[in-house]
Amino acid sequence: MDEPAILVRALKKTYGSGSAAVPVLRGVDMTVEKGEFVAVLGPSGSGKSTLLNMLGLMDRPDEGTLSLGGVDAASLDDDSRARLRNERLGFVFQFDSLLPEFTILENVLMPARIAQARGLSTEPLLKAKVRAEVLLETLGIKKLAERFPAQTSGGERQRAAIARALANSPAVILADEPTGNLDRANGSLVFADMKRLARDKGVAVVLVTHDETEAKTADRVLRMDDGLLR
Fold first, then answer.
1. H helices of the chain, where?
2. Domains in the chain, please, with CATH?
3. What is the pLDDT along the chain (230 residues), one digit of tens a residue?
4. Is the pTM of the predicted complex or chain greater than 0.70?
């Protein structure tokens, strides 16, 4: 049987110490299968962003286990975590974070260039470029490939950000309020794109959002409250 894309057990994280200690994650359990689109809802301060940082290998838990595709990520050293992050994870944020001096295509290719520069990949850039162009076509923005971000709309830039997140063929996409900066119509399109890509490409998507309406389009909705998923 295949390992789940994400397997978390009893994950805990506290910031500060002594009387200033603030428990943020209190023992989170979570399983996300390949190709599953999971939305995590919760108020500010509930631990959603901390959980996403743990899943993204940006921070380490104090206790518990975190497995990505069967790899025990919590125990890896920093170099191994960086390699795993590059190979297995893609990120989409509320603001597209595209680099304004590069074209849409160049932005989508940036993860491949960084992986090569850091010695994390030996894939020819031409192959990565073909994959990037296919992603742009799949998301309906191939005609924008040579434009700069300032020459595109907010919704188009966020689609480019999704393409960038998929550039290295990750197993998991982590999305933090990806539609928070968009109007309802464009937000709905971005949600639909992510759900379709999860299904068609077998990529697991974990999306943190405050949007109850859009979250209902996910395969599963989890609610975070006081550092626990319910």
1. 48-55, 78-88, 104-117, 125-138, 154-165, 184-201, 212-215
2. 34-60+85-224 (3.40.50.300)
3. 579 999 999 999 999 988 889 999 999 999 999 999 999 998 888 899 899 999 999 999 999 999 999 999 988 999 899 889 888 999 988 777 899 999 999 999 998 888 887 776 777 788 889 999 999 998 889 999 999 999 999 889 988 999 998 888 899 999 988 877 777 787 788 788 888 888 888 999 999 988 788 788 889 999 999 899 98
4. yes
